[in-house]
Amino acid sequence: MAEVIEISRLALHDQVASRLRTMLIEGQIAPGAKLNERELCEQLRVSRTPLREAIKLLAAEGLVDLLPNRGAVAVKLTEADVLNTFELLATLEAMSGELAAQRITDEELAELRALHYEMLACFSRRDLSGYYRINARIHAAINDAARNPVLTSTYRSVNARVQSLRFRTNQNEAKWADAVAEHARMIEALDARDPIAMRQVLIEHLNRKRDTVLELLRAGEIYPRSNATKT
């Protein structure tokens, strides 16, 4: 019985973490905002124990900062943070792509192609939330196909802190279409087992994401200025 209870508790805090992760990535919890435990418990209909376990997990992922005297706060990156993070992330994704092009199996490529078509369907429906979830699975699958566990753990740690920013880059129709086209090039490069082409498209993809994030950041569209008024 004790084992069943433990498994149930673990499953619950994983479920809470999944819901909180979506709220953070999609901006339902604003960057820099304190995670109010009482409100979140009511909203998610859970007790404080699984909520706190979930928050610790998200802090380890880099989506939440645990600050003295403030508690858990949704991560909020500065312009320098964005530049430094995307600089490293572009290198990690490029390496993942290069290795994946050399090591991916036919079965893995078929699964990636299927995910790509699912992503295209979300794009056609303008389902940004669904698109992003599948998009993230595609990038993770490319990383897995590289077959380097150290690269994978490093990539996931760095990528976690900019997930919410990557989500926002596709809210512009033209930039979203550009991202879709770049993903088509990724599938082509993997199909051709071309590590150079794969590396190049991923660097372009991440640099475009970085530039879009910086544009939005400087325009106050990611972290609205406190004195700004909406008309």
Any key phrases for this structure?
single chain; 231 residues; mainly alpha; Arc Repressor Mutant, subunit A; Four Helix Bundle (Hemerythrin (Met), subunit A); two-stranded antiparallel sheet; 10 helices; disordered N terminus; disordered C terminus
Short description:
By secondary structure, the chain is mainly α.
Q: Which class best fits the helix and strand makeup?
A: mainly alpha
Give the topology string: H per helix, E per strand.
Answer: HHHEEHHHHHHH
Broad shape = globular
Termini separation comes to: 58 Å
Strand fraction band?
Answer: under 5%
Point out poorly predicted stretches. Answer: 1-8, 226-231
Tell me what you see in this structure.
- This protein is mainly alpha-helical.
- The protein folds into two domains: 2-74, Arc Repressor Mutant, subunit A (Orthogonal Bundle); 79-218, Up-down Bundle (Four Helix Bundle (Hemerythrin (Met), subunit A)).
- The chain has ten helices and two strands, in the order H-H-H-E-E-H-H-H-H-H-H-H.
- Strands 1-2 form a two-stranded antiparallel sheet.
- Helix 5 (106-125) packs antiparallel against helix 9 (173-191).
- It is globular.
- The chain starts with a helix and ends in a 13-residue tail after the last helix.
- Residues 1-8 and 226-231 have low confidence and may be disordered.
List the helices and strands and how they pair.
Elements (H helix, E strand, L loop, with lengths): L1 H24 L11 H8 L3 H14 L2 E4 L3 E4 L4 H25 L2 H20 L2 H18 L3 H12 L2 H6 L4 H19 L3 H24 L13
Helix pairs in contact: 1-3, 4-6, 4-7, 4-9, 4-10, 5-6, 5-9, 9-10
